[in-house]
């Protein structure tokens, strides 16, 4: 169990390690070892705000989206019929446009954020048609022919099933590919935060 404060420090320090480079500018940690973070906690506990603060403090990019707003087509890309020459003449085949999820990251990369956090909210409430593709995304960081830029880290957020009837409990195949962190509310942590932000004393 983590408070928002302890989870923030754990994730922040881990991302620092994920993004450490050698003298040649190559990431030291292998991609397969840079597991996404999967934060679970009550609504309003501060999961999204925590991730945003981490990005701001590390001065890296930040993209936040809710997976419940995405269909299979927007998450995976739309099919496009292409044509190419072969020994038997012209051949038609299907390719896919870039996922809207990765397109949002690409916009930030164009602004100069070659490193960042991609936060996917309501992860446990995704449509059934997205479960298998998202499992592959966690493992390979690819959606179709397009890949999450190497310097971008995944943070997934969900509410526990008791707070959302449509939330699913994932099997070992998914949980083996993430660093699960259960976040609980802590009044003292909130009061400390409120004082730092100069909230009204009441």
Element order: H for helix, E for strand: HEHEHEEHEHEEEHEH
Q: Please outline the major beta sheet.
A: 5 strands, parallel
Rounded to the nearest angstrom, the radius of gyration is 19 Å
Strand content is 25-35%
Identify low-pLDDT runs: none
Number of alpha- plus pi-helical segments: 7
Average pLDDT: 89
Helix content: 25-40%
Task: For the largest sheet, list the strands in their spatial order.
Answer: 2-5-8-1-9
How does the overall form come out from the CA principal axes? globular
N-end to C-end Cα span? 29 Å
* Secondary structure: number of strands: 9
How does the helix and strand content classify structurally?
alpha/beta
Short description:
The protein is an alpha/beta fold. The chain has 7 helices and 9 strands, in the order αβαβαββαβαβββαβα. The strands form 3 sheets. It has a 5-stranded parallel beta sheet, with helices on both faces.
What does this structure look like?
The structure is a single chain. The protein has 202 residues and is an alpha/beta fold. Helices cover 35% and strands 25% of the residues. The protein has seven helices and nine strands. The strands form three sheets. A five-stranded parallel sheet has the order 2-5-8-1-9, sandwiched between helices. It is globular.
Keywords:
five-stranded parallel β-sheet, 202 residues, 9 strands, two-stranded antiparallel sheet
